Backbone:
């Protein structure tokens, strides 16, 4: 059955290219029983890049924000504006130059996969690289791209499944940022009845892996929403570890502790604090520790006064972040500071309540120092607590091991190689250690 939504002129062009050619190749990832598909060579400028490519989802959101066009990729996906934007995204991705060099040297090794109207399902980066070689470098051998053609009744679900199989389950995982991979998981999760095990099977991954990616994306969604457009998902491409640790820690915590740690991690991440430092603030009083450091810095008082004025503190107005992040912790919380700073880009400047003009970047630097100081204090406290509890913990472990030794003793004594004299020496050594411990009580 012909899909009436398809561009029939492009469908007819591809059918004409196929003609009576018997060329077919196996596409094992294609979910239908008939897995051999027609092969065609088409001009690399004729094929259309997929604007639904999950590998570029975060970059597309950035492009949409830049041009202020929500329908940039959806109004006319095959038109010049959307295609031009998608081409720019692919060209800007890491490894594009190396891909061009490889294609120039070895040419196309594997066929791309296109829909019946010539939209790429697999091979977008290669098509963009070949196009750049042909247009920019006058590399004549890059004029055509070899493609497998899907049936004209291929469904959207089949295409997403094929992308998951080809791009994620095989050797292409490195081409996805963690954010784009998580966004694909999110789409599959919604489509598969919110069943992580089904998503994992489709992606040939462990259920725990896809669940972890989904959970940390939810934390990122929340921070991006807090920023009200000041920050985009792609701005946090290098912060995967912070969001992963946050998602794991708050999963089974009380709402108060979850809110405290979450606001601390969000603020610290915005201020450029490394996750290795933030991990010391995975505790219920994290926000209070950071707040204290901020309030103890006299250079930040004008900023705090500005935040209080902007958030309406003292006039009975509710904090708009309370609903999103949880119940407010009052003066010990960070919702007001986070809510104010999250909406400001580092390159912006603001006028504080006392009239001085400051760069947001400078505020982030100072706030980051306060967060780092709180983390250092928490780490030192953890060390002190560790030193205090170390004797008890070690004694507990020693007692457990002794119980195991006693249980194993009868069986060990049945072996002819057993050395009772060595065991007796060990018992004497243990008694000596117990005597030393008793002398120090």
Residues:
């Amino acid at each position: 059955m012909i899909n009436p939504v398809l561009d029939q002129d492009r469908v007819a062009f591809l059918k004409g290219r196929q003609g009576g050619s018997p060329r077919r190749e196996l596409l094992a990832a294609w979910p239908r029983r008939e897995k051999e598909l027609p092969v065609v060579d088409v001009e690399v400028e004729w094929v259309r890049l997929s604007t639904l490519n999950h590998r570029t989802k975060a970059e597309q959101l950035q492009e949409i924000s830049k041009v202020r066009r929500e329908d940039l990729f959806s109004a006319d996906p095959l038109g010049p504006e959307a295609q031009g934007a998608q081409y720019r995204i692919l060209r800007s991705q890491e490894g594009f130059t190396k891909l061009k060099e490889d294609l120039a040297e070895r040419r196309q090794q594997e066929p791309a996969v296109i829909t019946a109207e010539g939209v790429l399902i697999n091979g977008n980066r290669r098509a963009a690289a070949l196009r750049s070689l042909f247009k920019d470098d006058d590399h004549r051998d890059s004029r055509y791209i070899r493609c497998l053609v899907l049936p004209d009744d291929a469904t959207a679900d089949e295409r997403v499944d094929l992308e998951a199989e080809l791009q994620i389950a095989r050797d292409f995982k490195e081409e996805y940022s963690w954010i784009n991979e998580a966004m694909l998981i999110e789409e599959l999760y919604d489509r598969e009845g919110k069943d992580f095990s089904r998503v994992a099977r489709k992606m040939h991954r462990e259920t725990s892996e896809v669940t972890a990616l989904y959970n940390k994306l939810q934390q990122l969604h929340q921070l991006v929403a807090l920023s009200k457009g000041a920050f985009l998902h792609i701005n946090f491409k290098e912060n995967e570890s912070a969001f992963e640790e946050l998602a794991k820690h708050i999963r089974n915590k009380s709402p108060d502790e979850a809110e405290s740690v979450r606001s601390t991690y969000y603020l610290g991440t915005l201020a450029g604090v490394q996750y290795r430092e933030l991990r010391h603030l995975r505790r219920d009083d994290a926000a209070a520790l950071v707040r204290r450091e901020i309030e103890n810095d006299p250079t930040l008082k004008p900023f705090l006064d500005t935040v209080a004025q902007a958030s309406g503190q003292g006039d009975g107005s509710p904090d708009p972040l309370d609903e999103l992040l949880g119940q407010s912790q009052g003066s010990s919380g960070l919702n007001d500071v986070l809510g104010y700073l999250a909406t400001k880009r580092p390159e912006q400047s603001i006028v504080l309540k006392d009239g001085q003009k400051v760069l947001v970047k400078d505020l982030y630097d100072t706030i980051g120092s306060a967060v780092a100081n709180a983390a250092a204090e928490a780490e030192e406290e953890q060390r002190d607590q560790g030193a205090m509890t170390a004797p008890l913990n070690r004694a507990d472990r020693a007692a457990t091991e002794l119980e195991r030794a006693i249980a194993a003793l009868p069986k060990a004594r049945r072996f002819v190689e057993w050395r009772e004299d060595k065991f007796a020496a060990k018992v004497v050594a243990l008694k000596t250690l117990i005597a030393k411990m008793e002398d120090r009580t």
